[in-house]
Amino acid sequence: MTYCLAINTETGFVLCSDSRTNAGFDNVSSYSKMHTFAWPGNRVFGLLSAGNLATTQLVIKRLQADLDSGTIPNLLSVSNMQQAVDYVATVSTHVQNLHVVRDSGNVNFEASFILAGQIGNARHETLMIYPQGNYIHESGEHPFLQIGEIKYGKPILDRVINRTISLEAAARCALVSMNSTVRSNLTVAPPIELLVYNKDSLRITHQLCLNESDPFSKELSQAWNQGLVIALQNLPKFYWETPGLPEIAEFQSAK
Hints:
The chain has about 260 residues and is α+β, with helices and mostly antiparallel strands. Helix content is about 35%, strand content about 25%.
């Protein structure tokens, strides 16, 4: 399975993805699910992928092939993010339909993508592309998008992420969200890839690939675990834990 995450803030965006691909108990591999296309000073795209590996790999190959051959449209020819996401969605649905026609074993060839990027002086955007080719922006109240195993890493995002959070804080939050997912789901695993993009830079600003033994990854995981323990210890006490205080009458449910 997969977990991919995009956080869109006022100052840029953060992308985070795992690398585990699971095609059965005896067929577990690692493949990058973060793909970048950048023309410094002109435009930057980051593409996260989840779903059938044959589909996602062929979509990336088609995007690169269109660039190499000059086929229109391509990621360099589109003039805005709307055209970019329409183009990627069209390639994705075409590849899925191609696989379905060839299939004789009732395989699920669906794939989902998150496209993040900025073209020229337009605003940076993040969009999630569904297998059917339709897509959405993140919401104003919760400016993040997830694909794959989303439930384990979502609670911290709901509580912490907003438009005004700093990019560095958003990046740490993304790694904690990923850490929570890795802890709870064996189908999501390192290496973990992280990309931080500063708006209007029109170049990939910071990019990391963290494995299980990486010192920073270990330190972040340990600090988060310790922080949770301290937070739990500091929660309000029950009345019976504080000697000398009068007992509170037992709650009576309304009739």
